[in-house]
Amino acid sequence: MTTVSAVMTADPITVSPQTPFKDIAELLTGNGISAVGVVDKTGVLVGVVSEADLLPHLWDDPKPRRRDRRLARKATACTAKDLMTSPVVTIDADDSLAVAAAKFARTGVRRLFVLWNGKPAGVLSRRDLVRVFTRGDADLEREVCARLRQLSWGPDRVRVEVRAGIVTVVGRVERRSDIDPVTRSISELSGVVEVRNRLDYVWNDVA
């Protein structure tokens, strides 16, 4: 199973709650990033300041609508403590990419801060997840074959073909009950778009 730690951007840039507005702006632009984490004295992530949190400083509306008042307060904020959004949507470093994708879909956020032992270890963007599907077919096929060999399914029993990330598995195995777990195992590999199961079996131990 490919985990978040394998595709995240490690060593995220963080600031303290007292970091000034201008310093944050310089960190974002100077490092080509869209957000920084805010950590307390113990290194615990307490908030995040994104580009969107800085933009209210450009507003000139003296009477913002009620739904905009939270952002209007940020228009006068001068430190990370008052600029940040909290709580932060996070994910654990050892979570699967499937868990990450579901969290992105559920929350609508652009990035997830990655935690290891409760401390920020990286940042995961939606693009990081999409990038796994750019993996070459030959590389993916080698990993699928290696996974099958671990299960004692060598090329004499099962043949693998990968095209555009779609894995087709053809062959004959002893027990029907072996097929679904192997299909799930292959689908968890980084870069797999779909698994097409063309496996037959000798003994139907499921019926």
TrEMBL record:
Pfam families: BON, CBS
Taxonomic superkingdom: Bacteria
Gene3D superfamilies: 3.30.1340.30, CBS-domain (3.10.580.10)
BON domain sequence ranges: 136-203
Key words of the record: CBS domain
Domain (CBS): residue spans on this chain: 8-65, 84-140
Protein name: CBS domain-containing protein
Annotated organism of origin: Amycolatopsis eburnea
